[in-house]
């Protein structure tokens, strides 16, 4: 089985979010980048397939040279090789188009992406990719097993979960649950050394237009300060929630 | 030309988000000088849609589409959009809508903006405001394609009522290869889900152990609320994974969010910030949650929560 794991390179979850150039650009100053958490679960599941079922695992990112350390980290965790499509990611559609080309050229059976990225939160790329290549698609995926051409997956739905059967080629949008939190791997020294020798191919982009454009960013309005209620006067909270906030 | 909106129902009844997206579609249609068409799957009585701005309902009754299927639903909605010559298609931010929307975008060659929080500031160029960086910022985006797809955030636009009525028409789309088949559904019934809840009561590591969740459940029960938890609580197995909220868990956009024994880490707050009113109960006055909350009580949850339950019961009895 050939697995492609899509890796989105995102600001660390603790990053302060600021903008520059008249609020049109994300301020990368002092920001640490990480593998998108949803993709980390996917990559770990891919490692399981590699070790238990003999899969070959490629990681891919659509982005500039600055994303290479993130791909190297994925190689250090255990992916066999990496591809960077050398173009700035501008919108979900343009990224999905690039990934569709990678899938077509590489003949992958299974594409593991994340439910959403934590920066732009489009939740678009995996579904669009599935649509473009005509693969089956399961998102909010919390478990995945593959047997030959058949796949069994579990998906989180509002208020519960459902079990589905489908077949390859398949794209999933993974999230926590795909593997346990405790199964996530931190690259060790040997992995890091080996990653240096693994192939990281830089691929030129195919022609792809965007469908949306970012005009500018805004920060939420500053919040007023908290109204404190004495612990001996809990009735006052009920009163405020009813008469002032009008939420009960 | 009409604006098409996908109005979700469950067991024949419309969800609140369906009425919210219908209201949103009406606002867009007014700006464009056109009408609203809703598409429904196996819904019973569609008259309520008229009261929320819908002019015409395309009613699909199909046993093949009885279970939600992203491919099947996306294809049906796309056929409806073509039939109505819709230039704008509106969906919600439910798990199902988020699942089908990217497939629909490809079907319709439509540019897609998800998590949109306001009516368009302009329809030409089509400009919307969406959340980005898990609620730490907003992004103003234009959709530049001929057909536009908008995913509306929950509880952002609100439900608007009008006195009008909608015509209905049966619609039988052709059904594609479904590709994904549901084997079994494991859903807690009779409980409010985090996605649908107006109020969410959430517990953190400050509650010490799973045996102490009785009071959280009772508080949720009195309020008709859903229960949720912080990430470590689900990682420790005190509560099911499905209750984990935050940046890497479920997003919460309720009217009221009550955080008990939760410190307010940035990853937690990012996922619940879209809630309108936030209450924190925590022993530590320095807990970061106090900076994000509207109301706070510095105190021990084991003393405050039982008192709160008692006061709420008195309040409910008077109502
Ligand atoms: C990549 C990444 C992603 C993450 N994603 C998420 C996410 O999606 N959601 C999430 O929640 N977290 C997430 N986290 C974890 C987050 O950083 C915090 O560790 C977590 O939110 C803390 O949970 P907590 O507030 O329950 O526990 P703690 O931080 O341990 O806080 C417990 C609080 O309870 C209070 N307390 C103690 N006793 C009492 C009492 N008797 N009465 C009242 N209060 C009491 C304490 O004062 C303290 O403030 C993520 C972390 C990382 C690194
Ligand atoms: N630039 C990118 N390169 C590779 N994969 C991506 C990229 N952007 C998004 N993805 C994948 O698509 C998922 C969802 O991202 P998004 O649609 O941006 O929310 C991510 O978790 C990644 O798996």
From TrEMBL, chain A:
Keywords: Electron transport, Transport. Coiled coil: none annotated. One of its GO terms (molecular function) is electron transfer activity. The keyword Protein biosynthesis does not apply. InterPro entries: ETF_a/b_N, ETF_b, ETF_beta_N, Rossmann-like_a/b/a_fold. CDD domains: ETF_beta. Residues 23-212 form the Electron transfer flavoprotein alpha/beta-subunit N-terminal domain. Gene3D superfamilies: HUPs. SUPFAM superfamilies: Adenine nucleotide alpha hydrolases-like. Belongs to the ETF beta-subunit/FixA family. This is Electron transfer flavoprotein subunit beta. The lineage of its organism: Bacteria, Pseudomonadati, Bacteroidota, Flavobacteriia, Flavobacteriales.
UniProtKB/TrEMBL annotation, chain B:
InterPro entries: DHS-like_NAD/FAD-binding_dom, ETF_a/b_N, ETF_a/FixB, ETF_asu_C, Rossmann-like_a/b/a_fold. Its cofactor is FAD. Binds 1 FAD per dimer. Transmembrane segments: none annotated. One of its GO terms (molecular function) is electron transfer activity. It comes from the Bacteria. GO terms for biological process: fatty acid beta-oxidation using acyl-CoA dehydrogenase. The keyword Ligase does not apply. Pfam families: ETF, ETF_alpha. This is Electron transfer flavoprotein alpha subunit apoprotein. It comes from Bizionia echini.
């Amino acid at each position: 089985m050939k697995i492609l794991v899509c890796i989105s390179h995102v600001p660390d979850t603790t990053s302060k979010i600021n903008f520059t150039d008249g609020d049109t650009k994300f301020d990368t100053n002092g920001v640490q980048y990480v593998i998108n958490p949803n993709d980390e679960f996917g990559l770990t599941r891919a490692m399981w397939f590699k070790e238990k079922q003999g899969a070959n695992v490629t990681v891919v990112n659509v982005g500039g040279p600055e994303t290479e350390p993130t791909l190297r980290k994925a190689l250090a965790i255990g992916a066999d090789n990496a591809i960077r499509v050398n173009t700035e990611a501008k919108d979900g559609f343009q990224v999905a188009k690039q990934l569709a080309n990678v899938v077509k050229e590489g003949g992958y059976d299974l594409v593991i992406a994340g439910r959403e990225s934590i920066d732009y939160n489009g939740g678009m790329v995996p579904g669009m990719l599935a649509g473009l290549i005509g693969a089956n698609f399961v998102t909010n995926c919390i478990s995945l097993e593959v047997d030959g051409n058949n796949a069994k997956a579990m998906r989180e739905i509002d208020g519960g979960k459902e079990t589905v059967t489908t077949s390859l080629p398949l794209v999933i949008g993974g999230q926590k649950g795909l593997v346990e939190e405790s199964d996530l791997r931190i690259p060790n020294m040997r992995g890091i050394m080996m990653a240096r020798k693994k192939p990281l191919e830089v691929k030129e982009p195919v022609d792809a237009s965007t469908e949306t454009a970012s005009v500018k960013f805004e920060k939420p309005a500053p919040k007023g300060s908290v109204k404190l209620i004495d612990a001996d006067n809990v009735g006052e909270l009920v009163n405020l929630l009813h008469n002032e906030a009008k939420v009960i | 030309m009409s604006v098409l909106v996908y109005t979700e129902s469950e067991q024949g009844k419309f969800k609140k988000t369906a009425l919210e997206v219908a209201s949103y579609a009406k606002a867009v249609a007014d700006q464009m000088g056109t009408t609203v068409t809703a598409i429904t799957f196996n819904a019973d009585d569609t008259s309520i849609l008229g009261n929320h701005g819908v002019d015409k309902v395309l009613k699909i009754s199909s046993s093949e589409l009885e279970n939600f299927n992203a491919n099947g639903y996306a294809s049906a909605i796309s056929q409806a959009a073509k039939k109505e010559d819709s230039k704008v298609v509106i969906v919600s931010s439910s798990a199902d809508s988020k699942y089908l929307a990217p497939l629909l975008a490809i079907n319709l060659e439509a540019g897609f903006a998800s998590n949109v929080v306001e009516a368009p500031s302009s329809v030409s160029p089509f400009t919307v405001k969406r959340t980005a960086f898990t609620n730490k910022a907003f992004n103003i985006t234009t959709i530049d394609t001929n057909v536009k797809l908008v995913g509306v955030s929950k509880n952002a636009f609100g439900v608007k009522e009008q006195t009008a009525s909608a015509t209905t028409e049966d619609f039988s789309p052709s059904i594609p290869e479904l590709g994904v088949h549901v084997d079994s559904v494991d859903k807690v019934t009779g409980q409010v889900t985090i996605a649908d809840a107006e109020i969410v009561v959430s517990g953190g590591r400050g509650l010490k152990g799973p045996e102490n969740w009785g009071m959280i459940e009772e508080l949720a029960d009195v309020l008709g609320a859903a229960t949720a938890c912080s990430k470590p609580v689900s990682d420790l197995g005190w509560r099911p994974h499905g209750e984990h909220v935050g940046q890497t868990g479920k997003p919460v956009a309720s009217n009221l969010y009550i955080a008990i024994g939760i410190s307010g880490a940035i990853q937690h707050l990012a996922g619940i910030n879209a809630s309108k009113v936030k209450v924190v109960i925590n022993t530590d006055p320095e807990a970061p949650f106090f900076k994000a909350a509207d109301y706070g009580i510095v105190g021990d949850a084991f003393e405050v929560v039982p008192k709160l339950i008692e006061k709420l019961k008195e309040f409910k009895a008077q109502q």
